[in-house]
Write a structure and sequence with these properties.
The structure is a single chain. The protein has one domain: PAS domain (Beta-Lactamase, 2-Layer Sandwich), CATH 3.30.450. The longest helix has 22 residues. Strands 1, 2, 3, 4, 5, 6 and 7 form a seven-stranded antiparallel sheet that branches. The protein contains six helices and seven strands; from the N terminus they run αααααβββαββββ. α4 crosses α5. The protein is α+β, with helices and mostly antiparallel strands.
């Protein structure tokens, strides 16, 4: 009987020794941290408010673009003369400026302007419909964006999926419409920057 008990005790001790040789699993080490999606991976179309703002601004810039194009290239030809002159001193500029400025007052847009492809990474501002204190200089560089590139390439109006912050006027969204000359070529893009304060809570769609 004593031998049996001694044998059982030995088995128990051996089991404890073997068990102590195996490190316990570390539950913390086995957890895989969740990955935080990069901001660039965010689908801006997931935000209904952004989609609504895009649709409204696209409709506005499309309507203004169609109005300019309705005169068979007249306004595109005017703009070509302004570019050829290299300044804003002629009557051609004044006629375009009056239209752009009135549209700012009519629509509530922050800025309304024209630009041409300046080559490289920039477009060049030509006519600026803003009040003089807010006006960009003639030929001011405007960085190319996917939507401006698409507008030049397709000849169709485009709207920015993202927003940007203006120091003086708050959060903005931009849209662009090609305007053609009498030769059927794109003379310029009409650009509109419009306030979208309703999108301020959604930082993921801000540049």
């Amino acid at each position: 009987m004593k031998k049996v008990l001694l044998f059982l005790v030995l088995l128990l001790v051996m089991g404890m020794v073997v068990g102590c040789g195996q490190p316990a699993a570390d539950p913390v080490a086995e957890e895989v941290p969740e990955e935080t999606p990069e901001e660039s991976d965010v689908d801006v179309h997931d935000f209904p408010e952004n989609n609504e703002a895009m649709a409204k601004l696209l409709a506005l810039v499309t309507a203004y673009g169609e109005e300019l194009n309705a005169k068979d290239g007249y306004y595109g030809d005017l703009h070509d003369v302004v570019v050829a002159n290299g300044n804003r001193l002629g009557p051609e500029h004044d006629e375009l400026y009056e239209i752009f400025h009135n549209w700012i007052l009519e629509s509530g847009a922050t800025y309304l302007y024209s630009f041409i492809d300046g080559g490289g990474d920039y477009n060049l501002i030509i006519v600026d419909g803003a009040f003089p204190e807010d006006m960009d200089e003639y030929g001011n560089e405007y960085g190319k964006e996917p939507w401006t590139i698409d507008a030049f390439a397709t000849g169709e109006p485009q709207v920015s999926k993202r927003t940007w912050m203006d120091d003086g006027y708050g959060l903005q969204k931009s849209a662009f419409a090609p305007v053609f000359n009498s030769a059927g070529e794109i003379s310029f893009l009409l650009g509109i920057d419009f306030p979208v304060p309703e999108l301020e809570p959604f930082e993921a769609i801000m540049d």
